[in-house]
Amino acid sequence: LRALIENVLAREAPETNVKLEIGDVRLHSLRSALDRAIGNVVRNAVRHASGIEIHAKADNGCAIIQVLDRGPGVPEAAVSRLFEPFYR
Question: How far is the CA of 71 from the CAs of 9, 11, 17, 24, 39, in angstroms?
């Protein structure tokens, strides 16, 4: 997982200082789908926030990945629509 996240950061945030706390997490996934999902979240954080951190750990057979930032957040009225295609 660390190598995948580092590749995403090199592509999406090459000039951004991102704090990484990644444990020894190994997983089986569609690499391209996970790369795309993490890339989308990182790109959004770089555009709209600062103080970006990525934490990842294994917990009971699951991988937990958190992308944290100090941005304005999502307005409460928009939260229910976040996963609609093409919603901004």
Answer: 18, 21, 15, 28, 17
pTM: 0.82
Rg of the chain over all Cα atoms, to the nearest angstrom: 14
Closest to 2 measured CA to CA, from 60, 68, 56: 56
Q: Pairing mode, if any, of strands 19-22 and 53-59? A: parallel
- CA–CA gap between residue 58 and residue 40 (Å, rounded): 22
77/88 Cα distance (integer angstroms): 12
Report the DSSP beta bridge partners of residue 63. Answer: 58
HSE-up of residue 6 (Cα within 13 Å, Cβ side)? 5
- Along the 88 residues of the chain, how does pLDDT read in single tens digits? 999 999 999 999 999 999 999 988 988 889 999 999 999 999 989 998 999 999 999 999 889 999 999 988 888 988 899 888 877 7
